[in-house]
Amino acid sequence: MPAVTPPTVRTATMPPDRRLRILGWFAVFGSALCFYLATAIIHWGSAYVRIDAAFYTFARFVLGFVVVCAGMAAQGQRPSCTRVHYIIGRTVTNAVAVYCFYKAVDVSTVASANILNMTYPLFVALFSWVTIRSQRDGFAVVVVLVASLGVWLILAPDGASTLQWRNVWGLLSGFFAGISIIYLNLSRRCHDSQSILFFMFGPGAVLMLPFLHGSLFVPNRLESFFLLACSGVGVLGQYLLTYGFLSVTAVEGSVISASRILIAALLGPLLVSDPPLTASGWIGALILFAANMALALRASK
Length: 301
Known about the structure:
Layout: H1 16-45, H2 53-75, H3 84-107, H4 110-117, H5 120-131, H6 138-155, H7 168-188, H8 193-207, H9 221-244, H10 250-257, H11 259-271, H12 279-299
């Protein structure tokens, strides 16, 4: 009697690339949570300590520089810089963007700061139209024009007569972040991620020194806690975003990153006692979210 071979039991296993993609999704979403949490920490700290936005920005860059240097030393890697003007552009605009972002939290609400910071994809589309003739896209311009209505609804939630100028800081953070993203895309053609982060954090900290006049001091234990907590989650968010995008498509990464708009709108009243968004504020936030997704989908075609 011939031997009967028992049937092979196959266990369902997920392909490695699929696992990496899912990890990439979680990494990008985690970065959005980290960036939001960094601003929430600034808000929570305002009840206990007096720390200027420039000091928070400086601390984030210093910690990031230490982490990057440690990583490069462990890998035996040296920073490379072949296109100085790209690196300078990325460093300067990113430093200003982060400072404006943290300043927006200081003078307005955590929700409005995060939502307006997420206008940077709109400025990327707008600047690309102006500076890169080959990338001019009429659809993107229409999306930007529609999104400008959303921006206005957030800046002036109760009408033109009640324009909240304090929210302009958040819009400025999106403006400079948009320029910074363009420089980042140019820098990636010539430099590795670690080198870009090295020059972003190190010289970025030096650039913040003039803004620290009268604001730099030796922090006590409580002040050190808020500085390190804010800086730690900010640097973690930067790394999660950088390496998460290596495993996901640009569209997936952009859409998941845009979730910070909804995170800020939903969690603001719960975590940081932000006033709930008005009806017009919600409409503005949803318009910005939809505009970010439309630009991401358009870029994939």
